[in-house]
Amino acid sequence: MTSISAIDAIRSQRAIREFSDEPVSEEAVTQLIQAAIRAPSASNKQPWHFLVVRDAEAKRKIGLWYMDSVYSYSGQERPSDGITEPHPIMSAPVLIFACIDAVDVADRLTLGASIFPAAQNLMLAARSMGLGTTLTTLHRPHQDEIRALLGIPESVETAALIPVGYPGGDQHFGGSRRRPAKELTYYERWGATK
Amino acid sequence: MTSISAIDAIRSQRAIREFSDEPVSEEAVTQLIQAAIRAPSASNKQPWHFLVVRDAEAKRKIGLWYMDSVYSYSGQERPSDGITEPHPIMSAPVLIFACIDAVDVADRLTLGASIFPAAQNLMLAARSMGLGTTLTTLHRPHQDEIRALLGIPESVETAALIPVGYPGGDQHFGGSRRRPAKELTYYERWGATK
């Protein structure tokens, strides 16, 4: 474990979308999930589960569904002979589903308060270990197929799908573009910037 | 800014529910929001806004609404003469609303993927600066009143309300209880622990 500061990890985290072949150890995955479960959750109920997928055939299927969602989202026309190439990001050495028990929660936005902080902890821990991640949710239109594939109960939401691996190609940490904080920070009243 | 490691910040973050009178500088608040906006968001749209409240009367009103939600949530009977004492956590030196543009997003759980990682960044940065926070959402049943009070448009969701201050009373970082990670980590298939 390196000793990168919290602020440096936060500042230099960015989506890593291409991975090297360097394997990700089981111990590293455990450390990521140890970090995830330190996050807050409503009433400290810890309603989370983490499903780790390394199997190539499972990743291929997930990657095809993910690619289908990308076509839907972008409005691009699908290939006339169907989608045959899985989305490359889903060929990462490890995929982690961040899941949440979701029965009886009417306010679905608030439900996210008990899983996305855990996902962010996982991604910051990954950053501090030199591992790249991306927070993805485009698997969700195909959640039912994914549930069937991996045996996930209907009472559980696959809130996020996080590919994990060492950065490959020209991928690197840091330097993501952001709007200036002062434009979106208001004082005492909506719209009142300083 | 201290140089606490990312892992130490993650491990020692916990909800701080009582605050000292030590003021929180404007610069510190800016640093928190600078950390928040490094978080990922869907398609890097950064659909967030942060509303900083220090005004005592506004905090008092928010604290009364929050207390009302606590009664609802716990099923406790309200005082016969009405709620006259605001919830003490809302008397923190600073309240920060983490808000998100929420028009046209059908999947409300997924909406959270673009605001709760930012909230977690803010809370980890706070931890690294010695500032305590709690991630709260119980203001949401009274969101309409809060919108009216602070001029927040209806197109915006106040996803989280984060009190910020230096820990007071016997409050301290670290040592939060968690279920062991190995019980909730599955490999290749739901329920398959190692």
Key terms:
32% helix; alpha+beta; 5 strands; NADH Oxidase; four-stranded antiparallel beta sheet; 194 residues; homodimer
Can you offer a commentary on this structure?
2 copies of one chain form a homodimer. The first copy, chain A, is built from 6 helices and 5 strands, in the order ααβαβααβαββ. The first copy, chain A, has 194 residues and is α+β, with helices and mostly antiparallel strands. The first copy, chain A, has a single domain (6-183), classed as NADH Oxidase (3-Layer(aba) Sandwich), CATH 3.40.109. A 4-stranded antiparallel β-sheet of chain A has the order 1-2-4-3, with helices on one face.
Give the amount of beta strand of chain A, in percent: 5-15%
CA-CA gap between termini of chain A: 40 Å
Integer average pLDDT of chain A: 96
How are the strands ordered across the major sheet of chain A?
A: 1-2-4-3
Tally of separate helices of chain A: 6
Q: SSE string of chain A, helix = H, strand = E? A: HHEHEHHEHEE
Number of domains of chain A: 1
Largest interface: A-B, 80 and 80 residues
Question: What's this entry about, in short?
Answer:
2 copies of one chain form a homodimer. Helices cover 32% and strands 15% of the residues of chain A.
Strand and helix layout:
The structure is a homodimer of 194-residue chains.
Chain A: H1 6-12, H2 26-36, E1 48-53, H3 56-74, E2 94-101, H4 108-111, H5 116-128, E3 132-133, H6 143-150, E4 156-165, E5 185-187
Antiparallel strand pairs in A: 1-2, 2-4, 3-4
